Amino acid sequence: MNITIIAGSQRPNSQSLNVANYLATLADQHFEQVNVLDLHQLNLPFWNEGCGKVAKNGRHSSPLDSS
Questions:
Q1: What pLDDT does residue 62 have?
Q2: Per-residue pLDDT tens for 17-37?
Q3: CA distance 20 to 40
Q4: Where are the beta strands (DSSP E) in 1-67?
Q5: Which among 42, 29, 36 is positioned nearest to 1, based on CA atoms?
Q6: Which helix (H) or strand (E) holds 41?
């Protein structure tokens, strides 16, 4: 059986990555394959601090917006 542990932070060297790596060492003896998925390495656009702009209406724009 395989397992993937997701480190759910966009920040480099996050605590969730440290925890995911620790859990991977514990899971290694129980699973055939253990993977750690680091969301920071994927550079996903859903949460990039400081990338969104605040419009005049007070709403934040998405980094995906073309404006």
A1: 56
A2: 999 999 999 999 999 999 999
A3: 13
A4: 2-7, 33-38
A5: 29
A6: helix 39-42
Query: Which 3 state secondary structure label does DSSP give 23?
Result: helix
25 residue type, one letter: T
Name the residue with tokens 């480099």: 12
Biggest CA-to-CA distance, the chain: 55
Give dist(CA 35, CA 44) in Å, integer: 19
Q: Is the dihedral of CA 30, 28, 16, 60 positive or negative?
A: negative
Q: Which two tokens stand for residue 42?
A: 């994927």
Q: Nearest-5° angle of CA 35, CA 39, CA 42?
A: 100
